[in-house]
Please model this.
Amino acid sequence: MLVRFDYPKTFDNMMEDCCSTDCIPARSTFPAMDIVEQENEIVVSAELPGTKKEDVKITFEKNVLTISGERKPVELSEKAKVLLKETQSENFSRSVKLGYEIDSSKISAEMSNGILTITLPKTEAVKAKEISIN
Model:
């Protein structure tokens, strides 16, 4: 049996497959965040699965919110054999600059089921006000 080997096309396909972004693991930004503006506040939600609240630090300075901390590895017995490891244990830090004046004395944070929710109330100066016509 004769099989035709198209060298240039095969080589190009091999190089394309090798350099494809599908083959390279994506390095996502951790933690994943959602930021929602409401009438009187900004609400930030961050996914922190497997992270204890004691291992998370939140700071707010000069309109920059920073969430940092440490993802600790899962404790394994000495006899355990890891068959697949996709989770990462590492220090993390993520900062976002907010374009609103925030009342920093009223910022609150809660953590439930691996979701950190930070509520940042807007100052009175930036809240929308209705003006009546005389």
User: Anything to note?
Assistant: The first strand starts at residue 33 and ends at 37. Confidence is low (pLDDT under 50) at residues 21-27.
